[in-house]
Amino acid sequence: MSEASRPNVLVCDPLAAEGLALLRAWANVDVRIGLKPEELAEIIGNYDGVIVRSATSIRAPVIERATRLRVIGRAGSGLDNIDTAVAAAKGIAVVNSPDANTLAVAEHTLALMLALARRLPSADWSLKAGRWEKKAFMGTGLAGKTLGIVGFGRIGREVAARARAFAMKILVNQRRFTPELGLAGGVTAVDLLDLLRASDFVSLHLPYTPETAGLIGAAQLAQMKPTAYLINTARGGLIDEDALLEALDNGRLAGAALDVFASEPALNNRLAQHERVIATPHIAASTVDAQVAAAVTVAEKFAELLRVS
What we know:
By secondary structure, the chain is an alpha/beta fold.
């Protein structure tokens, strides 16, 4: 295949080397990290495919100028940073890698749950500051506690499987009944308010949509036990951050662990700095294994759609 006949692919966010190697075997690949929206719009007309992760958005003004674009790829699970309806109207395929980061996010969720239960960050900071405060960091166990999982897709199911190994009781709220929920063992389906009232830990595993925006607000937080913890490794917009901050300030919630925020980077976010919050910078999917799997999956889908033999 001549250089001129090879498809042009633009990579806008960091992509694992394994994925880039697969793309470069049959395409001309340009890696341009950190493009501003207007810069992306200026050059998008030169490409047959574009790949992003979470940092770069592909919105209508960019898509409208994509005169030869045939496929948009997201090396990850969500598609909320891509205007899928606008792409579909122009006949542009949109692909992602929904399974690649499932285990990484599930493991991060359990890590945050354990860190909350055993107050690990505070204990670590205390010892590093030269203090030996054994009595100050009394924690709680997971065995016998109730975990409420809101959203029972791929990640929610993997979290449930791991929580069962800790002998936790598991409640699930799923917006609509699915075969996976019907076949799942060791979980009980309940409505959202019942889940919030009964759970010692609540973990969110939903996509961000107009229906789920602000799903956990003041009214929902008021239903939770004052000893309960809220965990979010899904999307920041699922939680009313002002309402959560108020609940934490007033002692109506024991704590929270947040990997995602409504606005990122959350450098001056009061929640991220709160003493009852464990905050991580959107790294739930950031394992070498997950990033390689995401890159390879998207590269393989691009090959199916763009490769000219």
